[in-house]
Amino acid sequence: MTVNAEHADRRAALKARHRRAILDAAKELITEGSSARFSVDQLAERADVSRRTIFNHFASIDDVVTTVCSEVLGVVIERFRQVVTAGQAGPGTRAEAFATLTEALRATDVPGLIAFLWRALGGFDKEDPRPRQIFQATFSRTTTELARELAVRNEGLDPLEAELLVSALMHGTEVIAEHWLSITGAATDESALALWRDLLDRLILSVKTGY
After folding, report:
1. What are the Cα distances from residue 167, in Å, to 88, 116, 162?
2. How far is 70 from 205, CA to CA, in rounded Å?
3. What is the dihedral of CA 95, 97, 192, 111, to 10 degrees?
4. What is the DSSP letter of 90?
5. Which domains can be identified in the chain, with CATH numbers?
6. Residues 153-187: pLDDT tens digits?
7. InterPro entries recorded for this chain (predicted)?
């Protein structure tokens, strides 16, 4: 390897470390409750980098927060998909598909994700619809993908049935999420988690039995 190549590799490695340090620091500040309202100086101090380094990697604090939320959301979505795809593919029925999805909802840390996003977005302000729109978009993001996966793994399940089922559960989760936030303020203590489990049970029962 030439000297120039080694130098380029070291620069690339340093750049990657700085980017990771910035994202990890932002996640820590959000988790601690500082929300997305932390300053560039706070982020730079926590990440042990300069202000200039932050702007070499990201356009703004919002850009940092959006990237962190995408990473957290990706981890939760992958966990959800792992549960959905854990069983063997087969002919499948609506009842079996419903059971698979409800198991995934119960096994995934949905309230943790909701609380993190709520803090990251700075809560919901009636004067600013953007945070709520981003929040709602997170629940719409995976509906088509999960419905397709469900239909593929259950050959007897009509694709439309799969999409309707996933949509009902995911949008219902969005509804109970906002209800849960209004009561708990994004707390994740045992009483808040117990409330989430109760709301989720009510959602599952409502979708399962109809009206």
Report:
1. 23, 23, 8
2. 30
3. -170
4. B
5. 1-58 (1.10.10.60), 61-209 (1.10.357)
6. 777 778 888 788 888 888 898 899 889 999 998 88
7. Homeodomain-like_sf, HTH-type_TetR-like_transc_reg, HTH_TetR
